[in-house]
């Protein structure tokens, strides 16, 4: 009996998703310093669409995907990019990063339950334990900020973030359920980014029509470029590649890794303090991820 070779592309994709989307918390925080949220998201996805278009033209793969596939691309585009990405960007204008992380940690829990409900995830005990350990790890990091959930000043931000989390979770479950219907990830992403960018541009001019581009700082513009190249093109491509090959829970659990990366970057870039609690919490999160992915030989 020969040992099965590890899928290096899959491992690379999972690592990229875990690390890059962990950095986007900081990227969004920097971008909203001087740029209105809907302009951030629309420009981000517009740049991403142009980059993917360049790849498709170079490979001579640009084509019309048909109305049926377009409808399939429209749903994750609306749920995961327009609503989830857009509302998270709005929420980060007012919510503390710790509270945002705690709320975002609910996503794997919702995806796990949704996956079971729609028959794409088996109700295994190790899945429940892994998700619970990861969530407890995140709460443990930010437990001193739990009181902020009830702070009336954060009501609007909490509402936007809650909708974003539910929308992302629904989009992930939907994408997993229908991922076998499409093969060209780059072509699908081109349509998703294009649709979402157009919608978000309209929203940007509706809600921020009086914005002054001259007030946009180079720091914020650079953050938007980073979000487009790495947070959208690279990470979404890796995300969909992984979603085709592993369970929806195995992909969603990377959200906990994202949070660890975000906290580490806060220490590295923003001089935030890392305590012993963070080390304990990281151990809990890694244990949760290990339990979910462990297979007996």
What does this structure look like?
The structure is a single chain. With 297 residues, the protein is mostly helical. It has one domain (9-293). Helix content is 74%, strand content 0%. It is globular, with a radius of gyration of 19 Å.
Q: Mind summarizing the main beta sheet?
A: none
Helix residue percentage: over 70%
Overall structural class, as computed from helix and strand content, comes to: mainly alpha
Distance between the termini: 12 Å
Query: How many distinct folded domains?
Result: 1
β-strand number? 0
Question: Any chance you could write out the topology, listing elements then pairs?
Answer:
Elements: H1 8-31, H2 37-58, H3 67-91, H4 97-104, H5 106-117, H6 125-141, H7 155-178, H8 185-207, H9 218-243, H10 248-252, H11 254-270, H12 276-293
Helix pairs in contact: 1-9, 1-11, 2-3, 2-8, 2-9, 3-7, 3-8, 5-6, 5-7, 6-12, 11-12
Q: Features of this protein?
A:
single chain; mainly alpha; globular; 297 residues
Question: Nutshell version of this structure?
Answer:
This protein has 297 residues and is mainly alpha-helical. Helix content is 74%, strand content 0%.
